[in-house]
Amino acid sequence: MPSIPEEPLLAPNPDRFCMFPIQYPQIWEMYKKAEASFWTAEEVDLSQDLRHWDSLTDGERHFVTHVLAFFAASDGIVLENLAGRFMKEIQVAEARAFYGFQIAIENIHSEMKKLSEERVKEIVRDAVDIEREFVCDALPCALLGMNGELMGQYIEFVADRLLVALGCGKVYNVQNPFDWMELISLQGKTNFFEKRVGEYQKASVMSNLNGDDGIHVFKMDEDF
């Protein structure tokens, strides 16, 4: 039985580390065409979109909405396949250049389909209402320093912080009613001669990820 010839694009190519000279000019041409059509989300003019949207019929809006919803999800699927399969299996440098550029373009497509700020706020408001209902049921009577009203205010405060982290404006504009909640974020130190260490993480293990190489972390094993 004759052997099946190997696909040239999948053939191992461990000795080629430079793009030039180009070995697959047609694939390289496709890469250059993709490069020439590059755009960013910030340069897209959306000033007339609302007027165009208002001019559509209900059926047209339904169709456009479903098409955008489909591509919002499928862009992520395309990205996953490009990064997880194509870039690993294809060995040709010209094809990898094209796929790498396509990954960048798909990321921009995903950015264009992000939720509007009003929709994000609507989702957060719904979550706050649900959380507030749970708190009112869990705290039917006031405790020392804590009651349903203060907990509701704290939920709104946390929601505003989440909105700011997502790049949106605040909705509730309330203060943190529990100052002691800020202490939870402080680095804890335990005297291990007196009691069992109860911190969630070992001291200094994560310090190198903060960019200071642990120089600002108190340690008991440093040389003096």
Structural account:
This is Ribonucleoside-diphosphate reductase small chain. Pfam families: Ribonuc_red_sm (PF00268). Belongs to the ribonucleoside diphosphate reductase small chain family. InterPro entries: Ferritin-like_SF, RNR-like, RNR_small, RNR_small_fam. One of its GO terms (molecular function) is oxidoreductase activity. With 224 residues, the protein is mainly alpha-helical. Among the domains are: 23-35 and 55-115, no CATH class; 116-180, no CATH class. The protein is built from six helices and no strands. The protein has helices at 25-36, 49-54, 58-89, 93-112, 117-138, 148-165. Helix 1 (25-36) packs parallel to helix 4 and helix 3 (58-89) runs antiparallel to helix 4 (93-112). The longest helix has 32 residues, at 58-89. The N and C termini lie far apart (75 Å). The model has no long low-confidence stretch (mean pLDDT 78).
Largest sheet: none
* Strand tally: 0
Low-confidence segments? none
Given the C-alpha coordinates, what overall shape results? elongated
- Look at the structure and give the mean pLDDT: 78
Strand content bin: under 5%
Report Rg: 28 Å
Measure the end-to-end span. Answer: 75 Å
| Share of residues in helices | 40-55%
- Secondary structure tally, helices: 6
Structural class based on helices, strands and sheet pairing? mainly alpha
SSE string: HHHHHH
Organism: Cajanus cajan
Family: Belongs to the ribonucleoside diphosphate reductase small chain family.
InterPro entries: Ferritin-like_SF, RNR-like, RNR_small, RNR_small_fam
GO biological process, one term: deoxyribonucleotide biosynthetic process
